[in-house]
Amino acid sequence: MNDNKSMSNNLEIMRKFSEVYAQRTGTFFCIDLSVTSVVIEGLAKHKDEYGFPLCPCRHYEDKVKEVTSAYWNCPCVPMRERKECHCMLFLTPNNEFASQKQTISLSNLMKEIE
């Protein structure tokens, strides 16, 4: 991983992306904001390490190969095609774990991942 400033920038980039994407797709963050925070943190780490926000909730034999294929880069193909988010970052309103929130402050996110 690069320095903390880079991670901090990617964390903010992924936080903003997540908010915009949730609003654009009519999806919501999980009731448990620690889930949302950990997923955003994982996306930011992958963006820092590989240049793309590879889904952090899956196991990969070769992350570089997966990034290149782009299938699991967020938003992944299942999310784009069917609104299915394995990470529970983007939940449809009828999902029992969906909150009514489409935003998360950087300070709340940081509190959850510390």
Percentage of residues in DSSP E strands: under 5%
Main sheet properties:
none
Shape: globular
CATH class: Alpha Beta
CATH topology: Ferredoxin Thioredoxin Reductase
Q: Give the end-to-end Cα distance, rounded to a whole number of Å.
A: 17 Å
Distinct helical segment count: 5
What is the quaternary state of this protein? Answer: single chain
Low-confidence stretches: none
**What CATH architecture would you give?**
Alpha-Beta Complex
Structural class label? mainly alpha
Radius of gyration: 13 Å
Mean pLDDT over the full residue set: 93
CATH homologous superfamily annotation: Ferredoxin thioredoxin reductase catalytic beta subunit
Number of strands: 0
What order do the SSEs take from the amino end to the carboxyl end, as H and E? HHHHH
How many structural units, i.e. domains?
1
- The percent range for helix content is 40-55%
Report on the structure:
This protein has helices at 4-25, 33-50, 63-69, 77-82, 106-113. It has 114 residues and is mainly α. It has a single domain, classed as Ferredoxin Thioredoxin Reductase (Alpha-Beta Complex). Helix 1 (4-25) crosses helix 2 (33-50) and helix 2 (33-50) crosses helix 5 (106-113). The longest helix is centred in the N-terminal third of the chain and has 22 residues, at 4-25. The protein is globular, with a radius of gyration of 13 Å.
